[in-house]
Amino acid sequence: MKAAIAKGGAGIDSISLVELPMPIPGPGEALLRLKAATLNYRDLLMVKGQLSGVKEPYYVPLSCAVGEVEAVGEGVTRIKPGDRVSPLFALGWFKGSTPTAAMLGGPIDGVARSYGAFDAESLCLIPDKLGDLEAATLPCAGLTAWNALFGPRPLAAGEWVLVQGTGGVSLAALQWAKAAGGHVVITSSSSAKLHRARALGADILINYRTTPDWAAAARHALGGRGVDILVDVVGAAGLETAATMINDGGIIAAVGMLEGSASWGLDPGKPVAPIAVGHRGQHEVMLAFAALHGIRPVVDVAYDLDRLPDAMRHLESGNFFGKIAINLL
Fold this sequence. Notes:
The chain is of the alpha/beta class. Helices cover about 25% and strands about 25% of the residues. It has 9 helices and 15 strands.
């Protein structure tokens, strides 16, 4: 079977396509014909060796995918051949707030390959209303956004959310919030991307490049008030400004570290809630919500597996809207 192999810390140019033996599902496992995958910022950090505490010499990259069950091992009852499923990002994370260490795309071999044998209990059934590429956006970015809005401090209808940028987590948060009856402020350095976000339902659009004091502009547009949840993908560098946007009783949902370091554990004077993807139960509730509300996750472009380095460079450039996908067929 075809698979991509990366060398941790060696950069994008270390990624190569190789032939590996076909996996065989053992007891409790399922063999998946993987069909579609998507990239996350974590994948870029992994290949650059910039993810603290995770050092892999050689590994199969990527964490999020959809596949079809081709065979199951002894004792498997959760799924059957023909089912469409996604593996959890952290295999074996079924409940609780702490993920397992078995994270796909490092330290566990990921999904940039044609086939994979996975723990069957770590697979989630995909609703028919979601296509393969769409569903492949959800195990990390979609679920992180879901828990940012409905985890530590659940969003209520009529409340305001602020999302930063137009990457996968931010656009998923926009879509979840609108479906739940919320209102959304979105910031970006691109007016063209903001116009696309308006088509997804964004209520207030702010270009932070042309309006450097974007927080003041947001408050003005909101009539002097702030927001109830700010989905923080920037990290510590933007935390002080983010805190000025939070209403009493609101939170900063700390997701990312696009500008260097995460805001987990910091105290800007407003509550900072660390968000770390989510477990199987949350994943299943999210999938049901997406199907119920007809949500179509945003895929910007799809590359074939042999162009994974190009897809990584596209991710690195920031010149995308939503998710970058990989066709595994």
